[in-house]
Amino acid sequence: MKTGDHESKEGLPFAVWTLDYQTNPWANQEVAGESYRMAEIRRVLDGPSEAEERELWTWAALVPEPTNRHDPNAVAVICQGERVGYLPRQDAVRYALYITRLSASGLMPYARARIWTGRREQWVDEEERYVERLIGNVRLCLPEPHMLGPTNSPPAAPYVLIPCGPTIQVTGEDRYLPDLAPLLQTEQECLVFATLHELVLPTTRTSRMVAEVRIDGRRVGQLTPKMSSEVLPVVSYLAQKGATAAVRAVVKGNRLKAEVILHCVRAHQLPREWFDIPVAAAESMAGCQPDLESRTFDTDKGAGRPLRDASDAPQSDPAARPPVATTQTSPTHREQVELVYPGSTSRGTTGTRSRGRARLLL
């Protein structure tokens, strides 16, 4: 396998979801065995001289080795086609199952890696003195095992994943607990794909637009008017390109109470290169591919067909307009929100929502 290739026999490259790596690029996970892999590390660094001290940020593939004769839970760390070490044995036990599940789903997990080399004095028993030698160190940006990737399937429509950013709290999740509770595992938190949509809320005199949050196509809440104004320009821009705005989200809680937290940048924080990111096909993980040509710390990029020009955008379709939320009072005087989708005779309420079953990736 060559990690520089965008396709590999082992699966589609997938960048693990380290939610804070853009704002806090901390390589928290140690890698073992670098001292035995100095030749490989030097090749990754394009052959530094003995006197050089270098630091490089790149991508590393996490490859399970169930047939490893030393440890069936072994997970190799491979950079640019070079095996530069392994996850320590005590950590490999925790990660092997989840990484194997990703591999079984046709994905090859990649994590951000920091590679460093420099000269340091080391004690040599045979010579009974300190000797200056070139040493190397490899560390990974790796979340907890159950937070490596999404629990649910990618969006069922062409999408673009908005880059990670500060957290945004979703409101109104309590109304949709039956849809959220099945997502929660024993850890009581999980990562999911969520999508953002325009929603018209009627007020006493007029109406206002807010951002509706959906998971697996079902509404799970909305953003406050203030936070909606921060992301709706992105939703509108992508809609003109025929794409859905997707974000990384964390679901926390249990069967009694749950909350949804989004991790995405605001519209004004989008980097210039984001506007060139291709649209990922529906139900494809291509939107989560790492930029394997990158050898510096930068934003994540997707893969798929190019964004269409505005002239290629679909013509106005009544069924594609944002739903209008109307309120009504039940016999028990409990307020319900009913979504009316223009151009459709179907009506959905919080009490009649259909439930589906997500394909678990982890």
Describe, in plain words, how this protein is organized in 3D.
This protein has 362 residues and is mainly β. The chain has two domains: 12-147, no CATH class; 159-287 and 315-349, no CATH class. It is 12% helix and 34% strand. The protein contains four helices and 17 strands. It has helices at residues 38-44, 89-104, 177-180, 225-240; strands at residues 12-15, 29-30, 54-64, 75-79, 82-86, 107-124, 129-141, 159-161, 167-169, 189-202, 207-215, 218-222, 244-253, 258-263, 324-329, 335-340, 347-349. Strands 1, 2, 3, 4, 5, 6 and 7 form a seven-stranded mixed sheet that branches. Strands 8, 9, 10, 11, 12, 13 and 14 form a seven-stranded mixed sheet that branches. Strands 15-16-17 form a three-stranded antiparallel sheet, with no helix packed on it. A hairpin with a 4-residue loop joins strand 13 (244-253) and strand 14 (258-263). The longest helix has 16 residues, at 89-104. The radius of gyration is 24 Å and the shape is elongated. It starts with 11 loop residues before the first strand and ends in a 13-residue tail after the last strand.
